[in-house]
Amino acid sequence: MTTTAELLKGAAELFPDEVVTQAHVRHFDLPLGAGRFALITLDNGLDHTKPTTFGPQSLANLNVAIDQVEKEAADGDIVGVGITGKPFIFAVGADLKGVELLKKHEDALAIGKGGHDVFKRLSALAVPTFAYYNGAAMGGGVEVGLHCSYRTVSKALPAFSLPEVFLGLVPGWGGCVLLPNLIGADRAVSVIIENSLNQNKQLKGQQVYDLGIADAIFEGADFLEQSLLWTASVLKGDVEVVRPELDRGDAWDQAVARGKAIADGKVHGAAPAAYRALDIIAKAKNGDLRQGFDAEDQALADLIMGGELRSGIYSFNLVQKRAKRPAGAPDKNLARPVTKVGVVGAGLMASQLALLFARRLEVPVVLTDIDQERIDKGVKYVHDEIDKLLLKGRVNQDKANRLKGLVSGVLDKADGFADADFVIEAVFEEMSVKQQVFAEVEAVAPAHAILATNTSSLSVSEMASKLKHPERVVGFHFFNPVAILPLLEIVRGEKTDDASLATAFSVAKSLKKTAVLCKDAPAFVVNRILTRFMGEIQNVIDEGTPVATAEKAIEPLGLPMSPLVLLELVGPAIGLHVSETLNRAFPERFTVSPNLKAVVDAGKRGFYVYDSGAPQLDPEVAALLQQGDTVLTEQQVRDRVLDAVAQEIGLMLDEGVVAEAQDIDLCLITGAGWPFHLGGITPYLDREGVSERVNGKKFLAPGVASVPA
Questions:
Q1: Average pLDDT of the segment spanning 24-36
Q2: Cα separation of 103 and 456, whole Å?
Q3: Does an H or E element contain 677, and which?
Q4: CA-CA distance, 73 to 121, in Å (whole number)?
Q5: How far apart, in whole angstroms, are the C-alpha atoms of residue 602 and residue 610?
Q6: Whole-model pTM?
Q7: Which of these ranges, 94-98, 484-488, 577-581, 681-685, has the smallest mean pLDDT?
Q8: How many CB atoms lie within 10 A of CB 383?
Q9: Which DSSP symbol is given to 274?
Q10: CA quadruple 255, 258, 262, 264: dihedral positive or negative?
Q11: What is the pLDDT of residue 5?
Q12: Per-residue model confidence (pLDDT) at position 167
């Protein structure tokens, strides 16, 4: 039979570039005369910006450390064993770079089994074991602690989670089995399913303690000292840890059912990870750990060899790595400093921008508009939002006062913009209006000032064409709500120079936005794809397919909301305007729906009413709809919509709208909330065979968001 050491040695050979974590063992006498103690510290030798992970060699190192303390415990040389991490980091789980390289089911199974075999030795030692969660703990980092007898947590701990379902995996080193058996199924479902599917929500130290995951909580400053003092008290019998009795009856089944409802609401059955995790939680009800661990191993191996995880890792790499090094961005040393910002317009979008610039850049921000009343309203909006941040404790009184002092409004652009380095317009989406605004700004702003447009679909080059210095105009397209969606499409006009573009990227970085460079093509990236997507939905409705069928057809994509609910969020009038813009540019592919026009003309804000709490087709909208008699099935609708999207993305890449398919996916994930588990859209189109059916080839090379060949 293969030993754990042999299993991990084989896995390590598949992953030569692992950043290896050491497991250092040191010994000391506990306070209160409690006895000799062994402490294992997990440390990869790098600072806190490179968190500690568990690849195969790292697991092997921990295994060797456990060999040592196991013998010491058996010989009576120690009274207990603790495990902790380097400063600010406990451990953040399996090394995903290694998971990406796996090509065979048996290799994937070895990873699951290897983790289990090492971690479960902690619970089998002849002495009690203690995990001290001193810093960030995720995935396998959380799980190694669950195998211990007791746990303490630092009040300063910033992030604690089991994020596997978010990525397309299950917590596979004990999480699905041990957590519900520690804190009950309902709380475990919240951590494993709900938090994961809620954009990978993290827990803080206090929450970890309140949930019952940790038995004690201490301040960050002397966390280890206090934990060791508490450990001594536990070992001497002065402190007794009492855990509540778990409800293994109906409450357990209800918790699993709640998890399924959450998963259905988020991914609509389109992604397997959440459901596999729930199956294991359901089976863990009987407390049979071995059976549960075997189920985790199988689920882990199956999911590692499936498309969802590969897409999840691909998404993770896009957001964590590609987003930090935007393709095509000029040399950052060309960027000019920005010490004052001007905003043309004082409506909701302009006010949101003013708030963001003030908070992130902490420089003066001046709003202008056509009358004082609008300006006052815009400035008041920003001040009110800062007051809300103060109430929530996100800023202190001093910071709030300072931020409010940075935001002002003036009627005369010459007064406001004479010393501005960056001026952005957020006025009505009409070319002549925007050209006039830029002409007025150019007349009063300094020669070096960047002129940025928040247009969602109009040509940046045409907007700049009547200026003396079109080289300083750049597209700077935010997504609504500005504070939440990370994407910023930065658009290079025909004449935009490198210094202006570099400054735009530098500002984007200061704003903490994910910037993607786009060519000046109609509607850029997100709106072009969404308009083609929505346009095809509208087409099948106009031709005769019932609204409900058209909406349901898209559910397997697991999008955050249905197409017509999205239209309501965007606003039917804006949707119509963008479709008209694209229809002028590409009349053969982009239609203008007469039914959508009728809805807008009637002043309706969407297709649905919510009188019953759930969306139902508005009878007034239903009366407006003029439909043909071609009724498609859900599958036919889905095929048509996906074919249209695949065709459009293929054309956009041919036109060089962005550098690569990866940028399309990064835009959809960060600007339109498309699911991580899809990898945006192109991995899904590749996996479903749509790319080859439409374009004759896949968007991505084998192994990029799929199992390597």
A1: 97
A2: 42
A3: none
A4: 12
A5: 18
A6: 0.86
A7: 94-98
A8: 14
A9: H
A10: positive
A11: 76
A12: 86
Q: Put residue 200 in one of left, alpha, beta given phi > 0 → left and psi -120 to 50 → alpha.
A: left
Query: E-strand spans in 413-546?
Result: 422-425, 450-453, 473-478, 487-492, 514-519
Residue 373's SS3 state is helix
453 strand-pairing partners: 425, 475
Site of tokens 């495990």? 83
DSSP annotation of 285 reads G
The DSSP output letter for 193 is I
Torsion sign over Cα 667, 673, 675, 681: negative
> Nearest to residue 581, comparing CAs of 522, 532, 518, 655?
522
Distance CA 524, CA 479 (A): 12
245 is catalytic: no
Q: Is-catalytic flag, 164?
A: yes
Q: Which residues of 619-640 are buried (b: 16+ CB within 10 A; e: fewer)?
A: eebeebeeeeeeebebeebbbb
**Backbone dihedral angles phi then psi of residue 295, each to the nearest 5 degrees:** -65, -40
Q: Residue 189: which residues within 8 A CB-CB, separation 6 or more?
A: 180, 255, 256, 258, 259, 262, 278, 281
Helical segments of 484-525, H only: 498-510
Run of H or E residues at 430: none
Average pLDDT, the chain: 93
Query: Which residues pair with residue 35 across a beta bridge?
Result: 30
pLDDT, tens digit, 9 for 90 and up, residues 310-360:
888 899 899 989 999 999 999 999 999 999 999 999 999 999 999 999 999
User: Which amino acid, residue 589?
Assistant: R
The Cα 123–Cα 141 span in angstroms is 15
Which pair of tokens denotes residue 343? 């905003």
Cα(242)–Cα(40) distance, integer angstroms: 25
Identify the bridge partners of residue 617 per DSSP, sorted by sequence position.
Answer: 608
Please work out, in degrees rounded to the nearest 5, the angle formed at the alpha carbon of residue 428 by the alpha carbons of 425 and 430.
105
Q: Which of 143, 425, 536, 648 is catalytic?
A: 143
**The residue type at 591:** T
Q: What is the pLDDT of residue 2?
A: 66
Q: What is the CA angle 104-109-112, rounded to 5?
A: 135
Burial pattern 577-609, b for ≥16 Cβ within 10 A else e, equals: bbbebbbeebeebbbbbebbbebbeeebebbbe
- Which DSSP helix (H) or strand (E) runs through 572? helix 572-585
pLDDT at 570: 83
b or e along 237-254 (b: 16 or more beta carbons within 10 Å of the residue's beta carbon)? eeeeeeeeebebeeebee
Q: Residue 127, Cβ neighbours under 10 Å: how many?
A: 21
Q: Cα–Cα distance between 454 and 429 in angstroms, integer?
A: 9
Burial class (CB within 10 angstroms; exposed 0-12, middle 13-18, buried 19+) of 495: middle
Choose, from 164, 296, 385, 442, the residue flagged as catalytic: 164
Give kind and range of the element (H or E) at residue 101: helix 96-101
Q: If you average pLDDT over residues 434-440, what whole number do you get?
A: 96
* Partner residues linked to 423 by β-bridges: 342, 451
Unique residue bearing structure tokens 């038995």: 215
| Cα distance between the two ends of the chain | 29
Query: How buried is residue 333: exposed, middle or buried, by Cβ count under 10 Å (0-12/13-18/19+)?
Result: exposed
- CB proximity list for 28: less than 8 A, separation 6 or greater: 36, 37, 39
C-alpha torsion sign, points 436, 437, 442, 443? positive
**What distance in Å separates the CA atoms of residue 9 and residue 11, rounded to the nearest whole number?**
5
Helix (H) or strand (E) holding 541: helix 526-543
